[in-house]
Amino acid sequence: MSAVDFWLGRHRDLAANLPGAELPWLARLRETAIDRFADEGWPTMRRENWRHTSLAFMAQQALAVREAAATEAIVADLRARYRTVQGPENEVACAADGHWLVFVDGRLAPALSSIGSLPSGVRVGSLADALAQTPEAVEAAFGRAEEGEAPEALNAALAADGAWIRLARGSLVDEPIHLVFIAARTADQHLRNLVVAEAGAQATIVEHYPAGAAGSTLTTAVTRIHAAQDSHLGHLKLQQEAPEAIHLAALSAEQARGAVFASHSLSFGARLARNDIRTRLAGEGAEALLNGLYHADGRRHVDHHTRIDHARPQGTSREFYRGLLDGSARGVFTGRILVAQDAQRTDAMQRCDNLLLSRLAEADARPELEIYADDVKCAHGATVGQLDEDALFYLRSRGIDSAHARQLLTYAFAAEVLERIAHAPLRALGRAALLERLPGGARLEELS
Predict the structure, then answer these.
(1) What is the pLDDT of residues 292-317, one digit of tens each?
(2) Which of 39, 88, 108, 375 has the most CB within a 10 Å radius?
(3) Is 31 in the same domain as 159?
(4) In 10 A of CB 214, how many CB atoms?
């Protein structure tokens, strides 16, 4: 049996029991999506968008859970960390617990979830419930089977649940909305999150992927964001899955006139992690920030593939990615900014910097600009290098031992990305996650 045959069989077994199976439009979409995946299969390096990352090994990959995860303990730890994280600004502490939706093995776990008081007209719940209660609204936001790469098609065919977030016009959600996804007992989970923000709405959404079940597990996750006029949305993804996990994710945003969207991607786990991040500035004066940090060691592989489409005038975008690569790890960044002919007075900047911490580590960085307008300000650049010997010498001359000097410079290189996270407790949460990964993190934590 081929890898494609396995997933075709998986779809046949699950389709009738997936939420919304009775909805004709969704049943057709799922059939179209699995047919597309059957035609395309797992991407290989022969495809331009996958030239540095192949999923051909999935044909022989046996997914299996060796040890189940203690979900209650994981959630309790995450919530405790969020309550107590401290930032550099005079020990910033969280005043409230926020809103928590917890999904276990791809399904909402109500007993582990907790949604606080929300403004009028704001809905935060599961996609499965929304399909039963407001299927027309879900249909408008769900997306199409033809969008994205082949793993997104597999996700469309198999996704059982995810978050459904609808923000009413002018609403403000003060505390972050935390979405926690835990692979506990099943070898694969497929998640689809839909966020619809009406005009002037403001919110911050966090996607947590903590280390769950031990073993070779697969997570596919698709998050779709519709940002209406003058809305402000922040999105932080913190990926810390187990060392043998495979994580394939996509985030796509559509921004109307004056909409502001900030994406922060922190990739600190999984054997292979691929993140496709796309935003379209479809309205005049829209603003976007794509900000990312990845750390890979051992033989891990992490890939960020981004695209920013400037479709209308006076759009502003900033993109910053940094990678820390150790052992025999490989980091990949491919970023494309497309400026349409009608997108005059676009202001766009893109940069990717990678720090190699060992001789065997590899980094591939390919920033791209494609410009069809003539009144723009655009720039891009990339670097791959090692720690600065002059900076190391300076720290050594001040009495700091070699190991700690290297740790300080490594942390300083990464911290610049974290400083762009506007919400202080979330910035501190990201800092704590980074320090857990870095050698000497406990010593560095005293200085942060």
Answers:
(1) 999 999 999 999 999 999 999 999 99
(2) 108
(3) yes
(4) 17
What are the tens digits of pLDDT across the range 123-134? 999 999 999 999
Q: Domain range spanning residue 20?
A: 3-283
C-alpha 100/C-alpha 124 separation (Å) is 9
19 burial type by CB count under 10 A (0-12 exposed, 13-18 middle, 19+ buried): buried
pLDDT of residue 91: 41
Q: Of all helices (H) and strands (E), which one includes residue 25?
A: helix 24-40
Buried-exposed string 382-399: b where 16+ CB fall within 10 A, e elsewhere: bebeebeeeebeebeeee
Question: Residues 177-198: what's their mean pLDDT?
Answer: 96
Determine the Cα angle at 304 with ends 298 and 307, to 5°: 175
Kindly report the pTM of this predicted structure: 0.94
Report the DSSP beta bridge partners of residue 377: 347
Strands 177-182 and 346-356: unpaired
Among 291, 287, 279, 278, which residue's Cα sits nearest to residue 259? 287
Alpha-carbon distances of 197 from 172, 316, 426, rounded to whole Å: 10, 20, 21
Domain end among 266, 283, 300: 283
Lookup: tokens for 205: 């959404």
Query: What backbone torsions phi and psi does residue 445 show, to the nearest 5 degrees?
Result: -60, -30
Tokens of 321: 């990615």
Asked which of 283, 303, 318 is the last residue of a domain, the reply is 283
Cβ–Cβ < 8 Å for 394, 200:
no
Compute φ and ψ for 326, nearest 5 degrees.
-130, 170
